[in-house]
Amino acid sequence: MNNIIIAYDSKTGNVQRFINKVKNELDIETVKIHEDSIIQKPFILVTYTTGFGQVPKTTKGFLMKNHQYMIAVASSGNMNWGMKFAVAADEISKKYSVPIILKFELSGTQKDVQRFIEEVRNIDNTCS
To answer: Which InterPro entries does this UniProt record tie to the protein (predicted)?
Structure first.
């Protein structure tokens, strides 16, 4: 997969563990973002939801400089938050008009990983 990359933000390690599971099964470049990161090729963003349903500050800062290359978003969350579960994906999707490809709990299940990989492959095929 040379057409897209996965850019991710992880605070507690849940998203990092999810990305590690994905990398074990998918040959794709991944980049852990920082507010000052610059990416100039199509990417799928994987982030987490923080506080009471907010997009993380680092993700917001990153998107201010890179949103034009984002083609999809996924987010982790905790089901204990009910309606606020993984709402960072909803906010990012709405603000930047990109599809949500997955919401997963904590570091995701194997089923979540497989669904994410299928979505990434579908997107990569359309970017070819």
So the answer is: Flavoprotein-like_sf, RNR_NrdI
